[in-house]
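#structure-requests
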Amino acid sequence: MKYDNYNGWKNYQTWNVALWLNNDSSLYDELVAYAIRCSKKHVKPTYTGFLRRSGYANLYTGDGVSFSDHRISKKELTRDLFEGLG
């Protein structure tokens, strides 16, 4: 699959959430902790799983994008965020 509609991502919403999760130290630390917990349980970490367990499903990035916006490519975020982790 090729994602290149917004700075190499599927869309603005996916790009914005990835930007925040990869560049905000608190968010990134939670993401890594989630991946480690999944690894210990031999479960593949996913963006959807992270949302469920982190409490971010009803929250927004600093730019006002909902972490659970329906336009977000969860598959793309899962691949980007957890490749090499967990």
